[in-house]
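ugh finaly. both done.
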Amino acid sequence: MSEVADFLRWFEGVRRRTRAVAACIPEDRLEWSPGPGRFSAGDLVRHIAATERWMWGENARRRPSRYPGHDETLARGKDEVLAYLDRMHAETVEILRGLAPSGLEALCETPGGAELPVGKWLRLMIEHEIHHRGQLYALLAELGVDAPPLYGLTEPEVKARSAPPETA
């Protein structure tokens, strides 16, 4: 992906799927955690939002990370948490739209001190979001909450629409 616009089109699809899963979190289970030191669903959504804006967004414009953490001081309650996710995303998209045409090739410094091209660093942002979306799916399953299928079909629907495997 050599153009910021191409990256943003891809990112919007990823975020749409993450947002759909986050919207399934029951209000009364938002801060439930599977154990001490483990993220709640609310923590995961706040973490995705905060790192996007305050780490990747800042690093993309070649500034240091300003990650504030993921606790409830950032947003309380489901509506606020989802609004925070949306607001941080909108701010990050504006930052990325403002990059120079060569902005994805420019080097940035990660919080760990590595120098990477901005485009590669932003692809890692997507990988990070997808990882945490998977955790959201697992938390929802543990809570007995149905979540939307990733691409429109459930596993049983894919199997039903598939040809039988060939035997050797």
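ok and the 2nd:
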Amino acid sequence: MSTEIRNKVGEKIDYTFHDAGSERVVVIGHGVTGNKDRPLVLALAEGLSGAGISALRFSFSGNGDSEGSFLDSNITKELSDLDAVISFVEGLGKKIVYAGHSMGGAVGVSVASQDDRITALISLAGMVNTKKFATTEFGEVTPDKGFMWDDEDCPLSQAFMDDLNGIDTLLEKGTSINVPWLLIHGTEDDVVLIDDTHDIHEKAGENCTKLIIEGADHVFSDAEHMKKMVDGAVKWLS
């Protein structure tokens, strides 16, 4: 079996596998402008593997060292990336848990609502109200000319904005998720507001649990908040 992962258009997906020998593998997807080496992604993967739970962290196409253009990156395209990663892990004979941060969380909700290969779901500051996010964060930026958060390495494309506006919200998809689901969010998140987690928790079934971390920002940058995020995920999975 090939160790390469490629999406449906043939782009190679960069990944790191933390093999703890478990029957489950937690696939970890990052948020917009991130990659598999973002501190919170790395901390979660190492925390899981240290607890005996295998993890695979990857960069969506167009991000990090994965092939593809950042200009093509959006939720809809990243569904194909996650499908390719899930198929790879399934080929290893493993059960799949998905943990997604921010926009990667939106990808997870979209896929888990219709793909029964995902046996459990973790949303880390998960984006839910995508149209609202687009307006709040980038409403004053001109697509195809400006940049996300003034970062010249992250140009804002019209395709990205159209995708977020077209999806609008993932609230109804939340009603279709029947697997165990953990929502983790910080109270001081000013990128994806904690309202997104509260809103989708109301729509989700009885298998959905919330972990609210007081004072945590969008990326759990404080060491104590990062530890609470990792420990919360490990305890829930264990």
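summary for the 2nd one i guess: The radius of gyration is 16 Å.
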